[in-house]
User: What shape does this take?
Amino acid sequence: MRALLTVVFIFLGLANMAGQRSYVVVLGVGQDAGVPQMGCDSPFCRRAWADRRLRRSVSSIALIDPASKGRWIFDATPDLPAQFETVKRLSADRSNRLDGIFLTHAHIGHYSGLIYLGRESMNSNGVPVYAMPRMKEMLEKNAPWSQLVTLGNIKLDQLADDQPVNLTRSISVEPFLVPHRDEFSETVGYRIKSAFKTLVFIPDIDKWEKWEADLSEVVRSSDYLLVDGTFYADGEISRPMSEVPHPFVVETMALLRGLPAAERRKVHFIHFNHSNPLVQGERKNLFEVRRAGFRIAAEGMRFPL
Assistant: This one.
């Protein structure tokens, strides 16, 4: 009987630990301007303006750790108010405490939501905002972001390439530089690590060949990846696509097609432009991605760490 009770207690303890595991949740999947975009009058956009179910929030993820009650958001999007509400609901904490925001770069969909931390809105107190040196300087020297610093709504913490930030004893976040259109700041992806799993988040990058890292090796060394899926293929928008370089979804799939199926299943596309047939729900393109063994990020999707 004593042995049986010991086994039961161990089982219950492991079950409790599993319930306390941290996780990453997808808060949004759209490109900087959301889905649909302002001014768009395409047939899909007209349908999306008429039907809220077709709309998508701007790309963002959150890290939630039930054990420490910590919650962090990656990128402050124009949809931050609603996305923070989602975080509050999932973490069962209705307070306005936010343990930090990690920024990837200075394009509108990735930092403009910081305005909602100001005194015209939530009037937060010392929310840690993690940023690379140029990003940090841009916020410090330019209004209205500088007012957030002056009034103490945010507290800027400077990041360094490949230098992890320890959030808890078992969770760290490591930024790494990626090539992108860096008019006002650097661009980084993030490696979120627990004692069990690693998730890589790269919502924006230029073509993969410009990056010094080997994407296949990044896939092999990670458990989940959320990567730039802005455009599905060339010719998707009317202006020259060289002006807004991103790896096309078809290019990423071709680059990784030699990986085993178990490796390809780790890769989830995110950050979709409103022109992307994947976010428009085109069955042919959705089937092509799934048949190739890759996945498509969706709002609410969870990745246990």
Residues 277 and 283 are 9 Å apart (CA to CA). The longest strand covers residues 23-28. The radius of gyration is 20 Å.
